[in-house]
Design goal:
By secondary structure, the protein is mostly beta strands. The chain has one helix and 16 strands. The strands form four sheets. Strands 8-10-15-12-13 form a five-stranded mixed beta sheet, with no helix packed on it. The protein is elongated.
């Protein structure tokens, strides 16, 4: 006859034996390599601010470069996680987008045209008439009226003076420089003094507002430069 004590001891022994067995446990083997991360397709279109596709733009990621086709389309493969996509083309800004990659993704990447001018020179520039059709992801990049991205090429560190005037009757200028750090607004003529500008491209985003008829989307820009 099996006593209650004997039955308890037998159950304890069975439990110990069962705990030492591996019936297909899913735990990882120590030292085994981690399973490979899945790869996903990242596709999209490179566009101008007007929505027009940009052909032959360079799309770089993970040290690889693909070129957009005639419709502005690109496709590449990236591992799970996040990816930094650098987009560039001559005559446009170069821009980097950080985007998640957690499944197959589709992205529109927008580039703005640059109008280049050398420090110390002057020019008359026709703004892009967008009619409020596009808005960028940072405030200083909003383009809800005739606008232009202007690149002033500064050869060496120095003092840069810029005067911008609209030729639009009753027009008002919005001028953003330094990544939106400097903003000037609501005058037909704007002068910006920069006492110490480093060598390289100096970018300005210029918009003309206050003129619903938009008869003349041109501005004049005059720059003076002195090395320091």
């Amino acid at each position: 006859m099996v006593t209650t004590r004997q039955r308890s001891v037998a159950l304890m022994i069975l439990a110990v034996l069962a705990g030492g067995c591996d019936y297909g446990s899913s735990s990882a083997v120590p030292g085994a390599p981690a399973p490979p991360r899945p790869n996903y397709n990242v596709s999209g279109t490179v566009l101008e601010v007007t929505g027009q596709p940009i052909a032959e733009a360079a799309v770089k990621q993970w040290g690889q470069t693909v070129m957009t086709d005639a419709a502005g389309r690109f496709t590449f493969v990236a591992p799970y996680g996040a990816v930094s996509i650098e987009v560039s083309k001559a005559g446009y800004e170069t821009r980097t987008y950080d985007r998640p990659v957690d499944h197959d993704r589709e992205y529109d990447l927008v580039l703005r045209r640059e109008f280049p001018i050398a420090a110390g020179e002057s020019a008359t520039i026709t703004l892009d008439s967008l009619d409020g059709s596009y808005e960028f992801d940072r405030f200083y990049e909003r383009c809800e009226a005739p606008c232009k991205l202007i690149r002033i090429d500064v050869p060496v560190r120095g003092r840069l003076s810029i005067t911008i005037a609209t030729l639009q009757p009753n027009g008002q200028l919005w001028v953003f420089t330094g990544g939106g750090a400097t903003e000037r607004c609501c005058e037909p003529t704007v002068t910006i003094e920069n006492e110490a500008v480093e060598a390289g491209p100096f970018l300005m985003h210029v918009t003309v507002t206050g003129a619903p008829d938009r008869v003349d989307p041109r501005i004049t820009i005059a720059t003076s430069f002195a090395p320091r």
